[in-house]
Amino acid sequence: MTFNDDPASTAVASQGLDEGDRLPPRMGEQKRNHADIDPQLIQETRQQIRKLVHEVTQLSQSDCTAEEFYDGFLNRVVSALASAGGAVWVRTPQGGLDLAFQINLNKTGLPDDPEKQLRHALLLKRVLASGEATLSAPQSGGGPQEAGNPTDFLLVVGGIKINGQCEAMVEIFQRPGGGPATHRGYLRFLLQMCDLAADFLKNRQLKNFDDRQNLWEQLDDFVRRVYACLDLQETIFTIANEGRRLIGCDRVSVALPRGSKCRIEAVSGLDSFDRRADEIKLLSRLASTAVKTGQPLWYRGDSSDLPPQIEQDLDRYLDKSHTRMLAVLPLYRPQTEEQTTARETPELMGALIVEQFVDKETDAEAPAASQPVESPTRRIEVVAEHGAAALTNAFDHSTLFLLPVWRKLGKATSALRGRKLLACLLVAGLVATVVGGLFLAPYEFSLSSTGALRPQTRREVFAGIDGKLIDVAVDEGDWVDANSVVARMRNPELEVEVTRLLGRRRTLNEQIDTAQRALLEGRLLSPAEQSRLEGELAQFQKTAENIERQLVLYREKQQHLVVRSPARGQVVTWRVRENLLHRPVQRGQSLMTIVDPESSWELELHAPEKRLGHIQLAYRNAQKAGETLPVDFVLATHPGEKFEGQITAIDGAAEVHGDDGNTVLIRVAIDAQQLPQLRDGAKVTAKVHCGQRPLGYVLFHDFIETVQSRVLFWF
User: Fold this and answer.
1) Same CATH fold assignment for domains 7-207 and 227-363+370-398
2) Distances from the Cα of 121 to the Cαs of 89, 96, 98, 294, 409, in angstroms?
3) Alpha carbon distance 326, 319 (integer Å)
4) Regarding the domain delimited by 600-714, which CATH topology (the fold level of the hierarchy) does it fall under?
5) How far apart are CA 206 and CA 199, in angstroms?
6) Can you give the residue ranges of the GAF domain (predicted)?
């Protein structure tokens, strides 16, 4: 993208050209009228600047870093103003200014002249203090120690304000020239861009607040979880897993002292691990060596300042694990004020090992005590501090003599005190009553099944031959008579074959006529020639007979190209014309379904094979008693209404039906007059009544059958 070298034209184009506006002159040129400028050039420049402004708007709403934003922002602003360069200055916590990004700062001569730098810095500080955008003419200002513009460029400076405070400034190095209107256009455009930059900084500030809030929530969750349990093993795994999530590292391990050595007891993300693995052994050895120093071990890529013993064990482990960052922090029992005053040696409770396998930005330069809690080093120390206290509590609790026995005795004793004894007896009586009811109380035993509503008269229309459907005469809902045409097909291969046979038959007929004429007119033929002609004639006639038989077969196949209805009924296949027209089909493929809705209707239920035994038993008992097995069902379209039916037949073979696995088809007779709507294939949910069973069996029969088939079967 290229821009006109005239900065004034660019700025004015960004503001829009109204009737009577005057364009400022180029550098070294006289004023000229609006009519002297090419309108097309003005329109193109205006479109370019609008595009740049749109890009800056999108950039201010993106989730990029500050450096990426300043880069894209300043480049677009400089391009829009056709300026020589620019700079972004960011306010420091101490109230100074830091250069965040610059374009062509060297052209101003500021980096090479300390005196110019001083005057320029005073100018920026004045703008920062006032918060007002300003224009500073080239080589303007007071003396050497006063604020001013020591450059040969027109300086256009605007502030980026957040909540009324100037947090950053944008400085544009504009070429001199142009009138006051042009300069005001520069300033207005820059202020608009500063507002967009302020939106970016506000969004970034809000994101930082959200991140900090999330961190405190994570810290609160870690503290709550790590102190929630007094079981030693569970506490160790909680420190490892929750500590890893809080720190944001790749792996956290916890080691416990075993004599003079440390042994890895928990690794984040692993429920179990092989302690004999080389990596675990090397890490245990490194932890044992590191905790002997009594100081945390920090490794961030350079181990030259470590003691030789630690460096040797560390190098061995790094060769195996390829860790980029590693920290080993001893976990000591928290001391009382008296113990701290007496300078007693704290008891070692374990070691926290933090690892990072990919390079990340670290905060190794600042002391941990001065770092905010969101810094990785401070997070590690917080996890170690709370982990040591939680580990101490869990260790003291777990080492109590006969702790499991005392715990159970304590619970039993507390449950049998005062009114709790009566409550205990009442609960026991209630439990006995419930258990007795489950075994003795009869209840209706029903088994659910799904199926569909079907008319008993139902016929499928199949393709009698391979081909392509060229006409579908019916659609969903149409009534057809028996043997009526419902579709027509075309088979190009069949047509080609029939044409070929007709051609061969024509050729053979001509050959037969020729041979017969030769025999009738051939009085001078020799016996050999006459015998040859008679043989050829017989062969031609036999071939012709074969062709006739083939033509009969092919004509029969051609009749299958006309698809007819096998019975009178209604087409129920959805969008049959749209789905079949111009579609190739194969012989035996179902094209449509025709039903007689005026006939009787029934339910087709697909009962799971594992429930068939109960249904068959109930069905046989009902037949012996001269009764029918009742079925209740609801339609998917009318779930609030319940209807009744009776089982008429149970299929003798099981078949796979969708996701239900092996199922058996059960036919249920119904009274169609009861149903509010008859629609083929309507989904139903049925409940087959299988008699009375104990309440416990009704509630838990699936579990009981699973135990019988998968557990008791093997004993």
Assistant:
1) yes
2) 11, 10, 11, 50, 79
3) 13
4) Elongation Factor Tu (Ef-tu); domain 3 (2.40.30)
5) 11
6) 231-356
pLDDT of residue 374: 52
| Geometric angle at alpha carbon 537, from 531 and 538, rounded to 5° | 90
Rounded CA gap, 269 and 277, in Å? 17
Residue 94's pLDDT band (cuts 50, 70, 90): confident
Cβ-contact 620, 672 below 8 angstroms: no
**What CA–CA distance (Å, rounded) separates 179 from 162?**
32
Q: Provide DSSP, 136-172.
A: E-TTEESSTTS-EE-SSSEEEEEEEEETTEEEEEEEE
Q: pTM of the full predicted structure?
A: 0.38
Give one word for 575, left, alpha or beta, with left for phi > 0 and alpha for psi -120 to 50: left
- Residue 711: pLDDT band with limits 50, 70, 90: confident
Say how far apart CA 310 and CA 455 lie, in whole Å: 85
* Residue range 570-598, pLDDT digits in tens: 888 888 888 888 899 999 899 898 888 87
What's the rounded Cα separation, in Å, for the pair 407 and 177?
A: 90
Q: Which residue has the higher pLDDT, 381 or 371?
A: 381
As given in the structure block, the two tokens for residue 698 are 């009704």
Q: What is the dihedral of CA 391, 394, 400, 406, to 10 degrees?
A: 180
Looking at residue 5, what is its pLDDT? 39
Q: Which CATH class is domain 7-207?
A: alpha beta
Contact 595, 457 (CB under 8 A): yes
* Spatial separation of the C-alpha atoms in residues 106 and 112, rounded to whole Å: 8
Q: Is 125 exposed, middle or buried (0-12, 13-18, 19+ CB in 10 A)?
A: middle
Give the three-class secondary structure for 60.
helix
Query: What token pair was written down for 253?
Result: 């391990």
Q: What is the pLDDT of residues 337-351, one digit of tens each?
A: 777 676 777 889 999
- Residue 136's pLDDT is what? 83
Read off the pLDDT of residues 466-478 as tens digits, 9 standing for 90 and up.
999 999 889 888 8
Measured between its terminal Cα atoms, the distance across the chain in Å is 84
What is the structure's pLDDT at 508?
87
Residue type, 500: R
Query: Is 366 a residue whose pLDDT tops 60?
Result: no
Mean pLDDT value across residues 329-341: 82
Report the C-alpha gap between 503 and 85 in whole angstroms: 88
- E strands in 191-346: 251-258, 261-267, 297-299, 325-332
User: CA–CA separation, 48 vs 252, rounded Å?
Assistant: 54
Closest CA to 327 of 395, 378, 278, 369: 378
CA angle 302, 305, 307 (to 5 degrees): 120
For residues 146 and 122, is the Cβ–Cβ distance under 8 A? yes
Sheet holding 251-258, edge to edge: 261-267, 251-258, 348-356, 325-332, 297-299
Find the helix or strand (DSSP H, E) in which 694 lies.
Answer: strand 683-694
Domain ranges of the chain: 7-207, 227-363+370-398, 402-440, 458-592, 600-714
Task: Give whole-number Cα distances, 535 to 6, 453, 538, 539, in Å.
Answer: 105, 68, 5, 6
What does the radius of gyration of the chain's CA atoms come to, in whole angstroms?
47
Query: Are residues 630 and 644 in contact, defined by beta-carbon separation less than 8 angstroms?
Result: yes
Homologous superfamily assigned to 227-363+370-398 = GAF domain (3.30.450.40)
Beta bridge partners of 235: none
CA 18, CA 12: separation in Å to the nearest integer?
10
